[in-house]
Amino acid sequence: MGTPLETPDRQATEVVDRLEDEYPDSTISLRYSDRLELLIAVILSAQCTDERVNAETEHLFEKYDGPEEYAAVDEEELAEDLNSITYYNSKAGYIKSSCETILEEHDGEVPDTMDELTELSGVGRKTANVVLQHGHDVVEGIVVDTHVQRLSRRLGLTEEERPEAIEQELMEIVPEGYWQQFTHLCIDHGRAVCTARNPDCSDCVLADICPSEKGDSDIDLASGEPW
């Protein structure tokens, strides 16, 4: 069983330092060319892999240009364009409705505040944080996706379960200058090593400070279940 450092602050800083060394080129994997494409890609990425989203948006972004075209298209046609994406019917509705709001209330521009973004259909705090960080260079929180949620609990950085509560705890212990990068580091490590079902603790740079280290610990702190 790994032994966490003395305080959550030190634990979080050590996690960031080690993962930065391990993944020096860590960054967002969604492909987009402007803020609207970023917003759409993040909406589509909910419960769907970035790889699948990128494959779908390659042709989507060729067909539609700007919020006017998404707002004008028949929702069923848009859904058909997204039919390899999970929950594509709902997401087509979110995209069409969001683009209508962007046209009606924001002069055709993707808004740049948390409050305005989360008023768009299908946009919660996680999506808004991604758009703010990568579309507007505004970092006011930490994106908590499934990887961040899992790793933060396994590493003893939080015992919270809801993304909003996890974000608030992480913002208190992760150095503010790393709020954006923390997410990408967790995603890369979660994909490569600290997977949901069968993490490779023997090849993990965090094993010695991880209280969930498989083999020594009986419990996966991410799920609360025995290994």
Characteristic key phrases:
227 residues; mainly alpha; Endonuclease Iii, domain 2; Endonuclease III, domain 1; two-stranded antiparallel ribbon; 11 helices; 2 strands; Nth; Endonuclease III
CA-based shape = elongated
Helix-strand pattern: HHHHHHHHHHHEE
Count of helices?
11
| CATH architectural label of the largest domain | Orthogonal Bundle
Low-confidence stretches: none
> Which percent band covers the strand fraction?
under 5%
Radius of gyration: 19 Å
**Strand numbers in spatial order across the main sheet:** 1-2
Summary, kept brief:
InterPro entries: DNA_glycosylase, Endonuclease3_FeS-loop_motif, HhH-GPD_domain, HhH_base_excis_C, HhH_motif, Nth. The chain contains eleven helices and two strands, in the order H-H-H-H-H-H-H-H-H-H-H-E-E.
Give a structural overview.
It is built from eleven helices and two strands, in the order αααααααααααββ. It starts with 7 loop residues before the first helix and ends with a strand. With 227 residues, it is mostly helical. It has two domains: 8-27 and 143-226, Endonuclease Iii, domain 2, CATH 1.10.1670.10; 35-135, Endonuclease III, domain 1, CATH 1.10.340.30. The chain is 52% helix and 2% strand. Helix 2 (35-44) runs antiparallel to helix 8 (125-135), helix 5 (75-81) packs across helix 6 and helix 9 (146-154) packs across helix 11 (179-192).
